[in-house]
């Protein structure tokens, strides 16, 4: 059974998350402030940390920074109402592994949580969506068993999208995954996504890379409520 720690001061939200994770056979302990959360992390082993950004006593960024300074490699999924790129960059710089903006869908929370847990355990060697497969061990990508050639940037974009699939990945999250703290040219991401789509979708009948209008991008089999760009 996966074990998680949720550090969240909104008690109603915390209880909702705990109840939903229980239905998914995921045990979730809870702390309502940063200091209490750090104490639980010092005394227990968890597979994933769900960390609110705005916390009493110690905010989420400081909690994350302290964990990394202590050498703890627990995956951190930051939960925040802030959707600004500067806030996200600060989180990634502090050691956050992934972001989920409030309000969020509970099923997306579970998808991201499980992906982080698998990444930590080293079990993920093959990422896939429909007939598209990425082998992290051999560093190869195939679709319908046909090998695909990707640039290093396209590889990073595809890996980020596959790890989140079928959830939506925002433009800002993709930029951070590829360029980190550096600010890319305004058109860079669009150009690289064009080349990625050309590599993984153009030769095939059914597209997998979808633009979710107003939200971001997703790898998924269906294209309901999506538009191509």
TrEMBL record:
Residues 3-117 form the Response regulatory domain. Gene3D superfamilies: 3.40.50.2300, 6.10.250.690, Winged helix-like DNA-binding domain superfamily/Winged helix DNA-binding domain. InterPro entries: CheY-like_superfamily, OmpR/PhoB-type_DNA-bd, Sig_transdc_resp-reg_C-effctor, Sig_transdc_resp-reg_receiver, WalR-like, WH-like_DNA-bd_sf. It comes from the Bacteria. Pfam families: Response_reg, Trans_reg_C. One of its GO terms (molecular function) is phosphorelay response regulator activity. Keywords: DNA-binding, Phosphoprotein, Transcription, Transcription regulation, Two-component regulatory system. Residues 124-221 form the OmpR/PhoB-type domain. Residues 124-221 bind DNA. One of its GO terms (cellular component) is cytosol. GO terms for biological process: regulation of DNA-templated transcription. The modification 4-aspartylphosphate is found at residue 52. This is Response regulator receiver domain protein.
